[in-house]
Amino acid sequence: MKVNELLLALEAKHPGEQEYLQAVKEVLTTIEDVYNQHPEFEKNKILERLVEPDRIFTFRVTWVDDRGNIQVNIGYRVQFNNAIGPYKGGIRFHSSLNISTVKFLGFEQTFKNALTTLPMGGGKGGSDFSPRGKSSGEIMRFCQAFMLELWRNIGPDTDVPAGDLGVGAREIGYLYGMYKKLARKNTGTFTGKGLEYGGSLVRPEATGFGALYFVVEMLNTKGIDIKGKTVAISGFGNVAWGAALKASQLGAKVVTISGPDGYIYDPDGISGEKVDYMLELRSSGLDIVEPYIEQYPNSVFHRGKKPWGEKVDIALPCAIQNELNKDDAEQLIANGVLCVAEVSNMGCTTEATDLFIEHNIFYGPGKAVNAGGVATSGLEMSQNAMHIQWTAEEVDQRLQSIMKNIHDQCVKYGKTENGYINYAKGANIAGFMKVARAMIAQGVI
Ligand code: GLU
Question: Ligand 1 mean position to 93 CA, how many Å?
């Protein structure tokens, strides 16, 4: 198989779907050698099948805002691949969401979920609805209208959505509530639920916690301690919060968070009550971080800027895809960064990723680093199926061992001759092998 030919064909078939084509290219170029060593992959047209989603639902979502005006949004659910388990993946509410983004996310999710060791296929969904500045009533009505259309296509053994950007505990509550009303079943078809109705302990923290467990594993390969290391975090939502919490608990010093308005530099470190304050900032619904400086006057607000110009040991993009570009990467490298781990999905552009790998810097791709979130969703599904609830310690223990396992898989497939671990390559090959073998075993379907 010539990966280039397949990519050209895909570009012609899906013109302008930039994020999707970028995600596919990143995977295909890293697995090409392994693919060509296994003639059964080519014979079964695994790549041609894997790059196209099983199906896509696109639907109109009509709802009424607080002023009585009718609003129209688009809803999506991409059921990408269910070779190893029911479709599983989040729902994103963001004004920029389009079919290219949902397809890229669903594609990534397929590999990520395979890495978790749990039986989950890949899916993703969302809407171009922006929660920014919306009242709780508007959010609820939108969620209900969204679910009115989607509920027929999901279920505990079919497709299990969860949160993502713009979809947190409140939105999951509204979505799941409407699902239950329509389906008349209390099946747990959603993860990230509240603790009172089937949610799992540690799920809110899981993406950030898992990412830090992964970073610790990376640093361990060179005997480096995370204690005392400085950390730049972007974003200030659920994922950034979990990462800041665990990083500070582990003794690292988090010096930045960011929002669409700019970034905060806090020389004293963001820990303790400052991490709690991130939740308050988020719940204002304004989507800005500037108020942080009023609360903590020792900090500085840099309007319209990203935090990657700061000199730090560890950079953790926790906001959105392609938020760290080539210039940012050059700046981080010039400032002696040790480790860059994507907590957001595809947080770095391809050029930035290539630069980190070229400079032998620890670089962890999103599908490995942030897999703790969906892995803990998988643990929530298990608890729901058994009608029990594990303790926080039990869940955290499982999360830690899953992250260690993902790290081991990356090392197995990503270690290069000079000892450098190419985590992007390792994660892609490990995820691909599992899905490809499952697809072959199940015939041409
Ligand atoms: N949206 C998260 C992700 O990108 C979590 C998905 C889930 O828990 O299903 O993996």
Answer: 13
Q: Do domains 53-185 and 206-369 have the same CATH topology?
A: yes
The first and second tokens of residue 201, run together, are 């302990």
**CB neighbours of 44 closer than 8 A, spacing ≥ 6?**
439, 440, 444
The residue annotated as part of the active site, out of 124, 229, 246, 425, is 124
The edge-to-edge listing of strands for the beta sheet with 55-64 is: 55-64, 70-81, 121-127, 87-93, 159-162
Residue nearest to atom 8 of ligand 1 (CA): 374
Q: How large is the average pLDDT for residues 327-334? A: 98
Domain ranges in the chain are 1-52, 53-185, 206-369
CA of 165 to the centre of ligand 1 (A): 10
DSSP of 229-248, one letter per residue?
-EEEE---SHHHHHHHHHHH
Q: Measured in angstroms, how far is the CA atom of residue 162 from the centroid of ligand 1?
A: 6
pLDDT digits (tens, 9 = 90+) for 380-437: 999 999 999 999 999 999 999 999 999 999 999 999 999 999 999 999 999 999 999 9
What average pLDDT score do residues 251-256 get? 98
How far apart are the C-alpha atoms of 268 and 180, rounded to whole Å?
46
Would the CB of 339 count as within 6 Å of ligand 1?
no
Where do the H-state alpha helices sit in 184-283?
Answer: 203-220, 238-249, 273-283
373 Cβ below 6 A of ligand 1: yes
In the three-class reduction of DSSP (H, G, I as helix; E, B as strand; rest coil), residue 335 is classed as coil
**Shortest-distance Cα residue to atom 9 of ligand 1:** 89
Mutate to test the pocket of ligand 1, among 92, 105, 207 (most ligand atoms within 8 A of CB): 207
CATH class of the 53-185 domain in this structure: alpha beta
**Fold type of domain 206-369:** Rossmann fold (3.40.50)
pTM of the entire predicted model:
0.97
Active site annotation includes 124:
yes
Q: Which helix (H) or strand (E) holds 31?
A: helix 18-37
Is the Cβ atom of 86 under 6 angstroms away from ligand 1? no
Q: 88: Cβ below 6 Å to ligand 1?
A: yes
